[in-house]
Write a structure and sequence with these properties.
This protein has about 270 residues and is mainly alpha-helical. α6 packs parallel to α8. The chain starts with 5 loop residues before the first helix and ends in a 9-residue tail after the last helix. This is Acyl-CoA dehydrogenase, short-chain specific. Keywords: FAD, Flavoprotein, Oxidoreductase. It is an enzyme of class 1 (oxidoreductase).
Length: about 270
C-alpha cells in the first residue's frame, strides 16, 4: 500500500472499522497483526498510528497495540509488552491476553506492576501521541452519541437539540475536541517531546470535558448500563491517566518552561 493512495487508505480504514466493531482484546490484536500492523508501524507510522488509535476510540474497541508503539520507538521488536507509567507515579502493564482485570475500566487486561525502569523519551513521546489519537476518537464517539440523542429526544414538542443550553454544551465539546485534534496532529507532523506532552494533555482534558457535557445532554439514559456512554467515559479516565494525566502533564510542561525560560514554537501556523 502506498501512503499517498487515498483509496487504499479508505479501504484499510473500512476493514479496520469492521474488524473493531466485532472484536476486541486478543482477538483484535491478532486481526491487526494479520493486516500487517507491525509492518505499517515500521514503514508509515504517521499514517498507521492515527488511523488505528482513532478508530479504537471511535468504535470503543481495545487492543494492546500501545505496547508496539512504545517498543518500536525504543528500538525494540513489537509484539510484546512493556511497563508503562500511569497517573500518580504508578506503573501498569497492558497484557496481550483476553483476560480482563479491574482498574476503572474492567474490560481491559491492564494491571498495576512494581515501578519499572524509565521509558526512553522518544518512546514516551510516541506513546503519548498514540494515546492522544485514542482520546480524540473516544471523544468523537461520545459527542456522536450525545448529538444523536439531542436530535431524537423531544421535549415540549421539539427536539432538545433546539434548546440553547444543549447547543452550548455540544458546541463546547466540539471546540475542545477540534483543539485537541489539532494539537495531536501538530505533534504528529513535527514530533517533539514537549509537543507530544502537550498534545496528550490537551486530548485528555478534551475527553474529560466531552464526558461531562455529553453526560448532561444524555441525562438519565447516559447513566444506564445499556447505553454506551459509560464505557467511553471509563475508557477516557484510563487513557487520561496512561503515560501521565492531563493535570500532571500540564504541571510537567510548566516546570520545563520555567527551567528553560522560553516557550518554543510547537507548530507552524
Amino acid at each position: 500500500m502506498e501512503p499517498t493512495d487515498s483509496e487504499s487508505l479508505r479501504l484499510l480504514a473500512d476493514t479496520m472499522r469492521t474488524m473493531m466493531a466485532g472484536a476486541s482484546g486478543g482477538q483484535l490484536d491478532a486481526g491487526l497483526a494479520g493486516l500487517g500492523w507491525l509492518d505499517m508501524l515500521a514503514e508509515i507510522p504517521d499514517i498507521a498510528i492515527p488511523l488505528v488509535f482513532r478508530l479504537l476510540g471511535e468504535t470503543g474497541a481495545h487492543a494492546p497495540v500501545l505496547n508496539d508503539v512504545v517498543l518500536h520507538a525504543a528500538g525494540r521488536t513489537g509484539g510484546g509488552t512493556v511497563p508503562l507509567p500511569f497517573a500518580g507515579g504508578s506503573w501498569v502493564l497492558w497484557e496481550r491476553t483476553q483476560r480482563a482485570t479491574s482498574m476503572v475500566d474492567d474490560e481491559l487486561p491492564i494491571h498495576r506492576v512494581a515501578q519499572a525502569d524509565s521509558v526512553p523519551a522518544a518512546a514516551l513521546a510516541a506513546g503519548r501521541r498514540a494515546v492522544g489519537w485514542w482520546l480524540v476518537g473516544t471523544g468523537r464517539a461520545m459527542l456522536a452519541l450525545a448529538r444523536r440523542h439531542a436530535l431524537d429526544r423531544v421535549q415540549f414538542g421539539r427536539p432538545i437539540a433546539s434548546f440553547q443550553a444543549v447547543r452550548h454544551r455540544l458546541a463546547e465539546a466540539l471546540v475542545a475536541l477540534d483543539g485537541a485534534e489539532a494539537a495531536v496532529q501538530a505533534a504528529t507532523d513535527e514530533p517533539d517531546e514537549l509537543a507530544c506532552l502537550l498534545a496528550k494533555a490537551a486530548a485528555g482534558q478534551a475527553a474529560l470535558t466531552v464526558s461531562r457535557h455529553c453526560q448532561q445532554v444524555l441525562g438519565g439514559i447516559g447513566f444506564t448500563a445499556e447505553h454506551q456512554l459509560h464505557r467511553h467515559i471509563k475508557r477516557s479516565l484510563v487513557l487520561d491517566g496512561l503515560l501521565g494525566s492531563a493535570h500532571e502533564l500540564v504541571r510537567e510542561a510548566g516546570v520545563a518552561l520555567r527551567a528553560t525560560g522560553f516557550a518554543p514554537r510547537l507548530a507552524q501556523l
